[in-house]
């Protein structure tokens, strides 16, 4: 199976309006920025996007929000995006806020073929409304359903032409679990190498999960909030 494609535009072929996408990253770290940019230049709309956060106004998923290409966001943290806030409060955007650990586990469970699981996170809050609850050992839990997507789009530090991926630092938070939960998984990488150049013990996502891979160029790697000591 030939997995290497030329660029982001070729990688996103087959994504259609109305589909569900998982997009890796944490803040602006490890987001698939080239694929997001390609999507922003397309006519694809009505997307459901599963992502820990929603980028910022002028970068990442902020591009898709600005273009009104997203109908629903399933996220954990969205506090850095004014356009997101405006669309949510006006009712233009459907939002499903999920505790961060629960969101990660929903993606991991989806990739593992587990349809649902119990968690104590969110019990007694709006998160639990309409969900089944159960008591275990004197503690209350809510039933959360797992997540899958038509396409999972991830960003890795290194990858080989067989699709094996290595993530770096914070980019390892959501990318690996999302890579397993898409019907089709696209990986953009900073460095694309030949098979055998990645040590087996260093691989975070086996190539069996990855369907398309390409090497991106000129990554911006923006910092969401720069904090330095005096």
From TrEMBL:
Keywords: Transferase
Pfam families recorded: CoA_trans (PF01144)
Transferase recorded as keyword: yes
The UniProt record lists the keyword Transferase: yes
Organism superkingdom: Bacteria
SMART domains: CoA_trans (SM00882)
GO MF term set: CoA-transferase activity
NCBIfam families: pcaI_scoA_fam (TIGR02429)
Protein name, per record: 3-oxoacid CoA-transferase subunit A
Source species of the chain: Acidiluteibacter ferrifornacis
